[in-house]
Amino acid sequence: MPAKQTIPWAMAVLSLALGAGPVVAETPAESSSSMRQRWAGVKQPKQGQPRAIGSYRAGCVQGAATLPLDGTGYQVMRPSRRRYYGHPDLIDFIKTLANEMNRRQLGVLLVGDLGQPRGGPAPSGHASHQSGLDVDLWYTYPEQAARRSLSRDERENTAAGTLVDVTSKKLTAEFTPRIVQILKITASDRRVERVFVNPVIKSAICASESDDRDWLRKLRPWWGHHDHFHVRLACPEDSPTCIPQRPVSSDLGCERLNWWFSDASKDDRKKARGKYRKRIRTAPKMPPQCRAVLQ
Length: 295
Ligand SMILES: [Zn+2]
Hints:
Layout: H1 3-18, H2 32-41, E1 51-54, E2 59-62, E3 65-66, E4 70-71, E5 74-76, E6 85-86, H3 88-103, E7 109-111, E8 134-138, H4 152-157, E9 164-165, E10 170-171, H5 177-187, E11 192-197, H6 199-208, E12 219-221, E13 228-233, H7 266-281, H8 289-294
Parallel strand pairs: 5-7, 11-12
Antiparallel strand pairs: 1-2, 3-6, 4-5, 8-13, 9-10, 11-13
Bound molecules: zinc ion.
Zinc ion binds near residues 126, 134 and 230.
């Protein structure tokens, strides 16, 4: 489109943003909540070759696979949310991790949100999880989960154990060597690109891990993530329109953790957090290929 024609459109959006005057845009932008409801309303994956499309924060998935609610070493929590769909690589990653935990007697893996049947923005909770490559996993599990399959009611209502007291920024007794082992197995999977954890957790692991530290590069500090860790796979080879993120930096990221704790970066942190929260509420700019996925 020639630049000349983009100006009235841009002005319309601007006036919409400022709440000033009548809006003359030909196709008014869909509101964030109606867009999110539309993606959440689709009950089945889109048939076809598996494809992660677009970015983690503005994308969708074709040919998603379903994670069964129970399998060796894992159980899916909050099944009423119906967010147990993902690119087949993600489903395979979860099963592989749970199997390995089971083999090494590291307890049960409780699985939180993956994505919606066709991905896209969800009505609550996430800026990402849109292209079938993100999953939230619990650090802890109630002891009955090791003996039996949890009931529907337990899956909906059990609270996840927290590793960090978020007010004092101190670790709780739930942080044990088991946690470090699980995160290490996770980060060592070559398909995994990032593992988001609370900065207090990364800091503790930076301080304790001595010989094999390379996997720490994939551990990314982020707000929350004190009661679950978030695993993000890299773009799969079968997905040419998947938009990758910047590769993680080559250093371990332990030295830069100070930003999360120092008084000097307090204002900076506040600003960055505001931006992140806004992202969860706004309508993402979807790639054109996602139109066909939703139909
Ligand atoms: Zn997440």
